[in-house]
Amino acid sequence: MFAREGYVLIASAVAVSVVLVVVGLQTGALLRALLWVLAALLTLFTLWFFRDPARTPPAEAARLLLSPADGRVVEIVEENEPLYLQGPARRISIFLSPLDVHVNRIPADGVIEFDRYVEGDYLVAWHPKASELNERSQLGLVHPSGVRVLFKQIAGAVARRVVYHVAPGDTVRAGERFGIVKFGSRMDVLVPPHVPIFARVGDRVRGGVTILGHLFAPNAPDGGADAATQTP
After folding, report:
1. Tens of pLDDT along 49-105?
2. 154 with 181: CB under 8 angstroms?
3. Which of 17, 93, 137, 185 is catalytic?
4. Domain that holds residue 13
5. Is 185 one of the annotated active-site residues of the chain?
6. What is the average pLDDT across 116-145?
7. Which of 38, 43, 160, 191 has its CA 20 to 30 A from that of 78?
8. 142, part of any domain
9. How many domains, in total, are found in the chain?
């Protein structure tokens, strides 16, 4: 299965590959081989990049914070978040290499309340300032517990297109696909400081599958107990 956002690029890659094959037929053996190898690599890479494997969220996903993307956790930091959480927050940043699945997934159950797209620069996605300066989407949802979650698609040095398909008022479920960032990128997830986080810097994560944390109302009497017993 392939991401629908990649259909045009897949078709373009196939068309270019066909041209390379045809041109190769009119050249010498060495150049023909090089052109045919290039055509095969172009088509295979494009198909691989836009793959969209089926994912099954874990049990109790309605109470969990899930990874919104495949990749590697590169930062977990405390910071102030003025846009949606409007206060102290914990940010988890995930770097997606060009070889990772780039389909992005909703990190938690809830209702979308905040949507802001920002044009920006194209620093390498792992740069500490990428989440502030790069092209990005910024989406906020409120979980049934009342906890707010902000998640960002961030374009990298190669990625030049952020695509998403949710808007304020939409009811969403943890693990649902909602968009894609093309050709290398980063995703940030920001939650209030009281949310228990299980991820660690360096962890490999899978979108819609890996548990990043546990969501519960700040004043829930059993929240701390639930968090203590939950494992990733």
Report:
1. 677 888 999 989 999 999 999 999 999 999 999 999 999 999 999 998 878 888 999
2. yes
3. 185
4. 4-49
5. yes
6. 73
7. 160
8. yes
9. 2
